[in-house]
Design a protein that fits this description.
single chain; mainly alpha; 8 helices
């Protein structure tokens, strides 16, 4: 049985090593620096959850989802001539690009908010992008059969509204394709496979933007020729 060290100083002790008495260094923190606590991990996480902030944020998301769409739809119905006059200078490719961009902004903010939930920047980006997308959707009467509604309201100028709706739909389909591919990679690819790198955050975002760009190219290069 080794001999019990004897105290020699604040950070030293006397021990017998190979039959020789020697003074050795000991830990400089003999007393625990972290105080004892009765809080569990669940209690700590609950104290960080801040339900009031998330409740207020949920209300803001609902407002961004409903109010801009209502405003855009009201303008489309009541100020149709004014909209046609001021928007007639735009082309269908530009309108589709703008609607795709704001929708992509909302999706990007949502993704970054999930990855880094502690930063309010991504929550703000998501709300702003969602509000802009909903305003354009209301302005262009986005629905399953939007081409009937846009023709009734805008008449021969319905091409711009249809192009904006296609930009939003393209971004939505791009997100759906990405979600299917990403989940498929999680399920089918083994952990030791080189393809598993695609499930990492940076690679996932690159794949998401590539798919979104392909969706935009399809809209700009093919579908918009109908208008």
């Amino acid at each position: 049985m080794p001999p019990t060290p004897q105290t020699a100083g604040a950070n030293t002790a006397i021990e017998v090593i190979d039959g020789t008495i020697a003074t050795v260094d000991v830990s400089k923190h003999p007393v625990a620096s972290i105080p004892e606590s009765d809080l569990s991990l669940a209690d700590i996480e609950r104290s960080r959850s801040r339900p009031l902030q998330w409740s207020v944020y949920g209300v803001l998301v609902l407002i961004a989802l409903i109010a801009p769409y209502w405003l855009g739809r009201t303008l489309a119905v009541n100020r149709t001539a004014w909209l046609v006059k001021h928007l007639s200078l735009l082309n269908v490719q530009g309108v589709a690009f703008v609607s795709w961009t704001v929708t992509l902004l909302a999706f990007t903010g949502l993704g970054l908010m999930i990855v880094d939930v502690r930063k309010w920047l991504w929550r703000t980006v998501f709300v702003i992008g969602l509000a802009a997308e909903q305003f354009i959707a209301g302005l262009c009467l986005l629905r399953l059969n939007f081409w009937y509604s846009t023709y009734v309201v805008y008449g021969k100028s319905a091409g711009l509204a249809n192009a904006a709706n296609l930009g939003i739909i393209a971004a939505g389909f791009g997100l759906a394709v990405f979600a299917v591919l990403w989940v498929g990679l999680l399920v089918l690819v083994r952990k030791d496979s080189p393809l598993n790198v695609l499930t990492r955050s940076w690679a996932s975002f690159i794949m998401f933007f590539v798919i979104e760009l392909i969706a935009l190219a399809i809209v700009l290069g093919a579908l918009l020729n109908m208008f």
